[in-house]
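ok so I'm stuck.
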Amino acid sequence: MATASANVSQRLLDGLTDDQKSAVRSPKRRVLIVAGAGSGKTEVMARRVAWWVGVESVPKDRIVAFTFTEKAAEEMKFRVRRWIGEITPKGEDINLGGMYVGTIHGYCLEKIREFWPNDYHNFDILDEAARAALILRGFNGVLGLSKLRSALGPMQGMSATVDQFVLAYDQLHEHNKFEAVMTSDTAPFPPHDITRISAADDFWISALPKRSSFAV
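replied:
not stuck anymore, here's the structure
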């Protein structure tokens, strides 16, 4: 048994740098890993999950592994499954069992549905397409997207305009620099604009603080 465990340990550490090996086999519950893009963070996380299962015998349903985007979550899931398969003896179950591997949004929604099923059973996570559609349908007017489109240039389509807005919105949030303030006098779109205020716009306008300017 000790030999089998040693073999699993060696396989999970093979090909890693010393720092990566330390992260995979660390006994600490919390490990902060700071590394650049393409440096192997996802691989290290996948091997660490496999280490818990294959070396420390942690039950699969006691493990949660999440990231931010769907794409990153799928890559994480693929690698975790691959390493679980690599270290699992033939004839034994190689699936993820009750382990959660996905996005943090999906995990939070799952827990909310578990604790408050009657209130949140119809809620779902927006993908990129649904997010863009929601912005255009519900918040086009209050965001002043027609003016943003004009400022970006005559060749800019509305879809590209939304993409630019979402990119700026996400980057500002990532660096904790986002602030939305509604003007106290002039709306950010003309009264005759076809993208006139919607019920969703009206709700958010009433909730935002008022100042003498509009800033994002």
